Amino acid sequence: MSHTASAIDVISARALLGSSPDVLLLDVRTPGEYETAHIEGSVNLPLDQFDAQLPHVTVAAGTTVVIACQSGNRARQCQTKLDAAGLRGSRVLTGGLNAWLAAGGPVVRGRQRWSLERQVRLVAGGIVLVSIIASVWLPAARYVAGFIGAGLVFAALTDTCAMGMALSRIPYNRRGGAAASAPGRMSAGAHR
């Protein structure tokens, strides 16, 4: 199922958020990413906690739900879940927070943290480096590097990342943002 028609660009999103009181702006990044920078009034509901909070989203949603993440992939996954739950008409912020920032959109900034994407690059690169060095003494260690490479290829082909999903669950990425634990905060018009 394609969601091209249900995407929204930054300019249109800013206009919508400024003119409509019935918009719920969901940020589905990790609490750590949300703490670093987020669109004012957005509600942090990490994708890995989304299923448990879905009843609150469907009750709180106004006429429009705009979903944002860092680049758009997690937002599209969230949109698929909303569609499956019968909440149609959600819009994915094209390009996510990256596009919002590039267009000069205002954000609330907090303590700087590494993005999930950067963490994946560090962990994957570190594992490959260590396994190649270890293969000098233990030749079979090179297969670990091959496994990581295969995982990265799979991640690119499927537009999902198992390592990113695993890293999103570590304490570093869970601190700091927990609107998901406060469903009462999930209301349309919170972006005012």
UniProtKB/TrEMBL annotation:
CDD domains associated with the record: RHOD (cd00158)
Parts of the chain that traverse the membrane: 120-138, 144-167
Domain of life: Bacteria
InterPro entries, alphabetized: Rhodanese-like_dom (IPR001763), Rhodanese-like_dom_sf (IPR036873), YgaP-like_TM (IPR021309)
Ranges for domain Rhodanese: 19-109
Single GO molecular function: thiosulfate-cyanide sulfurtransferase activity
Protein keywords: Membrane, Transmembrane, Transmembrane helix
Coiled-coil positions: none
Membrane keyword on record: yes
A Pfam family hit: YgaP-like_TM
Cross-referenced SUPFAM superfamilies: Rhodanese/Cell cycle control phosphatase
PANTHER family: THIOSULFATE SULFURTRANSFERASE RDL2, MITOCHONDRIAL-RELATED (PTHR44086), THIOSULFATE SULFURTRANSFERASE_RHODANESE-LIKE DOMAIN-CONTAINING PROTEIN 3 (PTHR44086:SF10)
Protein name: Sulfurtransferase
Originating species: Catellatospora coxensis
